[in-house]
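Colleagues,

Please find the record for the three-part complex below.
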Amino acid sequence: MNKTYVEMKNICKTFGVIRANRNVNFSVYEGEIHGLLGENGAGKSTLVNMLSGIYTPDSGSIFIHGEQVNIHSPKHAIELGIGMIHQHFKLIDVLTAAENVLLGHSQSVFISNKSRIKSIQNVMEKYGMEIDLNKRIMDMSVSEKQTVEILKVLYRGSKILILDEPTAVLTPQEIDKLFTVLKNLAETGCAIIIITHKLNEIMSVTDRVTVLRQGETVSTLETRKTNIRELTELMVGKPVNLSIERIHSRKGDLLLSVKGLTALGEHNVPVLDNVTFDLYEGEILGVAGVAGSGQKELCEAIAGLYPVEKGDIYFKGENIVGFSPREIIKRGVSMSFIPEDRLGMGLVPSMNMIDNMLLKDYVNQPGITVNRKPAKEKAERVSKRLEIQAPSIYTAIRKLSGGNIQKVLLGREIDANPHLLITAYPVRGLDIGASYNIYDLLKEQKQKGVGILYIGEDLDVLIELCDRIMVLCDGKVTGITGSESITKEGLGLMMAGETLSSIKKGDVVCKS
Amino acid sequence: MIPFLKNAVISGTPLTFAILGAMYNEKAGNLNLGIEGMMLLGAVAGFQVAILTENPILALLAAMIFGALGALIYAFLTVTLRTNQSVTGLALTIFGTGLSRFWGKRLMGTVLPESFSRNFRPVSLPFLSKIPVLGPVFSVFLEQDLFVYLSYLIVILSGIYLYYTRFGLNLRAVGENTAAADASGINVTLYKYVHILIGGALCGLGGAYLSLVYVPSWQDNITSGRGWIAIALVIFTSWSPYRAFWGAFLFGGLDIVGFRIQTLNLPISLNQHFLRMLPYIATILVIIVGAIRKSTSHMPPGNLGNPYFREER
Amino acid sequence: MQIIKREGTSTKQIIMIRLIAIIAAIIVSGIFIVFLGYNPVKVYVNMISGALGSKIRFRATLLEMVPLVITSLGILVAFKMKFWNIGGEGQILMGAFGATYIALFVDWIPKPLVIPVMFIVGFLAGGIWGIIPAFFKANFGANETIMTLMLNYIATQWITYLQYGPWRDPDLKGFAKIANFPDHALLPKVFGIHIGLIISLVLVIIISWFLRRTKRGFEISVVGESVSTARYAGMDISRIIITTMLLSGGLCGITGVIQAAGVNKTLTMNVSSGYGFTAVITTYLSGLRAQRVLIVSFLFAILLQGGSYIQSALQIPQAAADVLQGMILFCALGSEFFVNYKVRFRKNSISSEVK
């Protein structure tokens, strides 16, 4: 048995009334990749944030290399050789890669670049990493940013690496590359903790896995002695059926037709480039793509929130480009976009459920005053239908859990009986049970004849849930395909810029 | 023209200090609306010590200390107690204005002793002004008093500090993305405190220049809004110490152009009250133009004005 | 030591914390007063009696409260939208300017209508001073804090220009002053206090209703909380910002009308005398609630009135009251922290709770 690098005993941590961790026990050995598995809200991030010095435990003890420590700040954690790669990168956008690596670490008073860059390059060579050190973070792709994060940690000589949901934003190919790097690191004697809720990743990269549920440790297992089904049951607490039953509904009339849609972002760079597609009633059209490929702009452009440079959007035969958001809402277009922080668009965090239900409806009420009675009924209805857990409908929604916040948003949009439902990342951060509830809701809408534009992250889900899938890369459509005739790898290649026709030629990644 | 430009440098000097002071606050992520208050504290403390000791070094030290004391109150409230930065800054201005008026009541009508003022007579650097063509240009900047030279020195040192030292790099990180800086092992609280205090000390110096050299006597509200102009000029000069100097020079000129025009006997009669509006109107224009231009390289620190609490979730 | 966010602090706790803050302010200020060579107890007693000690003094305190209440309401609607309007001073002056124009230079309005017209014009003049920064904020995202502030100075110069120039009263030789308002342009009195008091109380009710019950009030809250959500819901953000600032500046303008027509009887720089700034503080301390504005403004009025009383009674310069005000502000602001967070001292896993 290798040396124990990290040991956490009886860790407890509460936030207000939420008990994020209860008597958690957890240990990691030298040279191992240890998976930390659990649904959202199971307390994974809280646990590792106590290792990285962001939080301090309420009680319990932490041992690093066998010595009891009280990690009081990120600085202290770094000194102990603990390096954290956060889910939301902690990098300074306006600085270069090299400056970010040196940040908070450089010893001399003056920043003398040459010798520093040399020493960073040595680290890069050692672990087989590649990155332009003089590039600014703001100009980098997601996977480049992640490389900088890892480099930063390695440069400080960290022996204990923590990665919080590192694969959420990567293409399958980039994930493979990351895992190769992680395996290299483990071989050189690092201890690696990787947080994820994707079971196949746990199976492919980890040596051991610890499952957390509702803030408690359920079990620690050796990966090769377990399987996906067992892990799911441990994670959820009960057996679950993982496949999404596809319902075939009759394809209805043409609902939405987007033609040559082009929109510009900063510096007049196209964020949507000649996007063309059709969406029919009773159809779910999936949109796949690496984060920031134009998904947000596409949703906003259809909803009238993003300026369209060129092209047309026909909704039921009517060109809605140039219409105000309110006119588009009136025609029955409903958009729910779950941003990374969950609260950014569509909801007002400090208001209660009633006022949030009012957001789009108040304007249709007569007079100059608002009547909260119908909104109250709506809140009660949505709350019951989607089983929203909240102290009451008078609670500020900021105080609800992430999953419940999403249900409020999606519930409100569905309750408006839209013709077109645009939904982006509706299961972002939800646990498995809640996710399947959402899928069921979407399928129900589909059966009612609603056209659904579904922007998703999980390729398995996209393939199972959607009728067709459109892949975006840098604002361009690289292909639209029936979801039954494509594999995950195929989608991954298209997300990286290959066109459908070019991968069809290879034919390995398409099902016939 | 040359005497006018010379005077513009002098009139811009308190602004240079104040802009740098505000800039250090903002680089640390704190929008401090208490600049005016800290300037007034420095102005009155410097003046008092000048009267008592007749020692310029002690007077400047006192100005810096009192500016920094005001900043300390602000830092404690906004950093440690996480109060709203705008309201706290405003309270600091009210406090500083009140205290300086109260304290200054006894100083009203007092004249600085000659032995003190002697120290702030213009000192020209030899030879430079004798160079043909460039000589007059040099003389605009290099026939000034020692206090003005001090402002040059601080501008240059600030530039080196911000862009070439690791402390400067870390400071910029704190202002840009506090959480990232914290995760990188930078002591965010310490950086904020130190730079808010440095900023306060610089504002104190700016105030002292007014009461000790520019006016030089005590009058209520001696800064007459320069602290506020400085806050706007930080935006105008986009958080760069070098541009801060030129911005101060420009607005220093704008401030005295009113007096100038009157002595020129221009055919059109320009009312002095309208001329006095000029710096304020210019400031508004600067802000509007800056907002319309929206260049990405001249953006404020990313986390400006946001409180930081590590365990926030 | 550990700092933890509080959830759902009880009203009782909040009151306790506020009380402690006030006591702390009294003690800190007391030390300052001792340092000045006065007896703090005597000063405090004088301040209270100077503000509340007799009917006349109480009336004076109420008169001091009126401009604070109305200006705070103006600032409140802007702050609710997260529009940091610190240009109350200028908006007050411009409101007074508008009213003065009607009172002194327009003679065709029937006398009974003069005062209502003064209010309307004052509202609009203050409102325009609020719309200017709102326009640039709404369209270009220009920083409103600095713009509103600069507009204060421009308004000050404008009024000074009028006072020394075109509006100077020719009857007063050697003394630059604008003529007094005619009697029909002065606010009528009720129980010895001009009707501004009643207006301010009515405005508290109206604004409270407006923010909580009307569509525009709802929109203001949404824009204040999240501009992107407001856009998403189809709200016309720039129109909301501009009309809200018309209201905000307009309310400040009404303060100007009342101070000119009820207190100063003419247009002078004294019409504003710092209310625009003090109102920022009172608004913030009231937690953006219209009814609480009334309470906080009353307490501040006591402070201001008491401060000017000790000047005459104890020969302590009035600036001392500003210093006290600053210290009280610091303590009140600091107490906010203890409402939102609790501090825990921790030793070897045995934790003890401190407040």
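The mean pLDDT of chain B is 87.

Comments are welcome before we finalize the supplementary table.
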